[in-house]
Specification:
This protein is an all-alpha fold. The chain has two domains: 28 residues, no CATH class; 48 residues, no CATH class. The chain contains four helices and no strands. Helix 2 packs across helix 3. The two termini are 16 Å apart. This is 4-hydroxybenzoate decarboxylase subunit B. InterPro entries: Flavin_trans-like (IPR036551), Flavoprotein (IPR003382). GO terms for molecular function: lyase activity. Keywords: Lyase.
Length: 79
């Protein structure tokens, strides 16, 4: 999984992303959504992180995925 910065993307970035995509890497750009009517920057960050976490663990809820991230590096050592 690659979470590229949102802009500007140069030709080199796009070519590298295309090459990675062809290798099976998922592209998950950190694009904030405004349909959920965020009230703070924290709301926007939470939404982006939840979407990335949902891509890592697609069969878990956003809340569960965020809890896994909050558990820290020791959680990841078992997977």
């Amino acid at each position: 999984m690659l979470v590229p910065r949102e802009m500007p993307l140069s030709t080199i970035h796009l070519e590298n992303m295309l090459a990675l995509s062809r290798m099976g890497v998922a592209m998950v750009p950190p694009m904030p959504a405004f349909y959920n009517h965020p009230e703070t920057v924290d709301d926007i960050v939470h939404h982006v992180v939840a979407r990335v976490a949902g891509s890592i663990w697609p069969r878990t809820s956003s809340r569960q995925a965020l809890a896994r991230i909050a558990a820290g590096p020791e959680f990841f050592s078992g997977e």
